[in-house]
Amino acid sequence: xxxxxxxxxxxxxxxxxxxxxxxxxxxxxxxxxxxxxxxxxxxxxxxxxxxxxxxxxxxxxxxxxxxxxxxxxxxxxxxxxxxxxxxxxxxxxxxxxxxxxxxxxxxxxxxxxxxxxxxxxxxxxxxxxxxxxxxxxxxxxxxxxxxxxxxxxxxxxxxxx
Length: 161
Prior knowledge:
Blueprint: H1 2-61, E1 81-83, E2 86-87, H2 89-97, H3 100-106, E3 113-120, E4 123-128, E5 139-148, E6 151-160
Antiparallel strand pairs: 1-2, 3-4, 3-6, 5-6
């Protein structure tokens, strides 16, 4: 009888040990999955930020390809300036008059949406936002100081998914 009780106690101990191990493994798997999801979100946000920075810089630092892209039907790279950081209204108007999907293709952001805004002294002067960002999963805005009509202005490029 003593042997049988000892065997029962060992079986119960083994059973509880297995349960504890299963619970610990489960907690570890869930924690690992949560960390992996968090890292994936951070990686996507970083990629979105890099893309937004690149596009904002091209729009306000380069004159486009070709330089007079706003006068041509076929162009490679749109821009908003003739000189670095000086917004040229004719290019802004050509940009905002262009087909939104074509612009996304030229900027290599087909899977994203974007908008542009130009403000002076807190007053919105120009805006190009053909798609609402209210349903955006991820959103990054890049602000740069530019010149518009001989005065300092704030240019904002927003990229979102």
